[in-house]
């Protein structure tokens, strides 16, 4: 790939070291470090100038390693996993260090917390006041309600991995259609990323095509999902850029998705 055509911003990747404390419910145990040094080397090798570190659910609210990376490298932003009991001062310190949102990784959960609960209503309002987004993953049958609750609180929504609505109905699933409607309302963005996580053959490409049609100029960002947890030996960084070029063949739209939109969303908001 010509580095002159490289994405400017990678909007979702992880960093961690194996010595960090895994949660009791961690779904994966990494076999090697994904250190900040290794991460930045990978970005540089592929011509990517800026990046957004996604909170790794494996480590829960242990945001310390990401926080140190954000302090040291102003080319980076991050999302955090937070505790409902953290007060505004704690959240403001995270913001000042380069965090731009919180992650609700709810897709693995059979039962999700109640966003009408006082503690969640307070957290969502604080996110809105801080200018943060809610970095969301949820199941098809719940995602519409979750999005609308977050919107009602005044916060923006950024949805992972093409929505990851990997069902028999595919792009016709009510959950995926709800994502398209949320894009139209103007407070939801979606990441073109991690097509390799779909189990249904060809569905990731169909979802990407529908998303590009709905929000390609203003409401999509691109991401690698490096270091591809659970797929470390099956996916390369170059593969994820190839997927981007397949999904977004138009150079002008690709510039919006990989540069203009993520810079506004994560760095200049």
UniProtKB/TrEMBL annotation:
Transmembrane ranges, per UniProt, are: none
| Family matches, as Gene3D superfamilies | Metal-dependent hydrolases
Q: Name one GO molecular function term.
A: hydrolase activity
Limits of the Amidohydrolase-related domain: 9-268
What InterPro entries does its record include? Amidohydro-rel (IPR006680), Aro_Compnd_Degr_Hydrolases (IPR052358), Metal_Hydrolase (IPR032466)
**What name goes with this protein?**
Amidohydrolase family protein
Organism annotation: Chelativorans petroleitrophicus
